[in-house]
Amino acid sequence: CNQRQMTKHFFSKIDGPIIILAVHLCGTLSLKAIDMFNNNQEVKLFALKPCCLPQMVYANRGDVFRIGQHEFDARDVCSNGQFSKGNWNGPPRWHLQPRFDTWADNLFKGINVGGSSTLEQDGSEEDNGYRVSMSSHDGVKVKDDIVIQVDGGFQ
């Protein structure tokens, strides 16, 4: 279902606020979820936990990903490998951590609430705790980046 169909059949028919929980979205599905948030004022809460990196086909074509007011080169985030029936087929996942960090950073930059951001330090320097807060000019949407690390995993 595309963005226009989602707006016609779902977003335009809801009276109250909408919440999008986008958990373990593989590859470019994270981009689609961000577009849904950016393009629909009815969406008041958006939680994104990306999963797999985009496949190399995007990098090989020289694609540039565009979300919100942000764009970035696919070559910076794409990787070989994917999960198949619960098993990872590709390079060791720890090799992909820098790419995944870049992917997550670029996804965050693409989330648009129409405001300006402030950086607040939460936690100590040792744990790199931080929180980025951003509010829309009308106060309707707020953007927070909260770093969560579980058992040493990066995905």
Mind explaining what this structure looks like?
There is one protein chain. The protein is α+β, with helices and mostly antiparallel strands and 155 residues long. The protein has four helices and nine strands; from the N terminus they run αβαβαββββαβββ. The chain has helices spanning 3-9, 29-38, 56-60, 97-110, and strands at 18-25, 43-50, 64-67, 70-73, 82-84, 87-89, 115-120, 131-136, 142-146. The strands form four sheets. A three-stranded antiparallel beta sheet has the order 7-8-9, with no helix packed on it. Strands 1-2 form a two-stranded parallel ribbon. A two-stranded antiparallel sheet has the order 3-4. Strand 3 (64-67) and strand 4 (70-73) form a beta hairpin. The longest helix is centred in the last third of the chain and has 14 residues, at 97-110.
What's the short version?
This protein has four helices and nine strands; from the N terminus they run αβαβαββββαβββ. It has 155 residues and is of the alpha+beta class.
Please tell me the overall pLDDT.
79
Low-confidence stretches: 117-131
Main sheet: strands, sense, barrel: 3 strands, antiparallel
Task: Spell the H/E element sequence.
Answer: HEHEHEEEEHEEE
Tell me, briefly, the overall form: globular
Q: What is the quaternary state of this protein?
A: single chain
| Portion in beta strands | 25-35%
Question: Top keywords for this entry?
Answer:
globular, 23% helix, 155 residues, 4 helices, 30% strand, single chain, two-stranded parallel ribbon, alpha+beta, 9 strands
Detail the topology: elements first, then pairings:
Blueprint: H1 3-9, E1 18-25, H2 29-38, E2 43-50, H3 56-60, E3 64-67, E4 70-73, E5 82-84, E6 87-89, H4 97-110, E7 115-120, E8 131-136, E9 142-146
Parallel strand pairs: 1-2
Antiparallel strand pairs: 3-4, 5-6, 7-8, 8-9
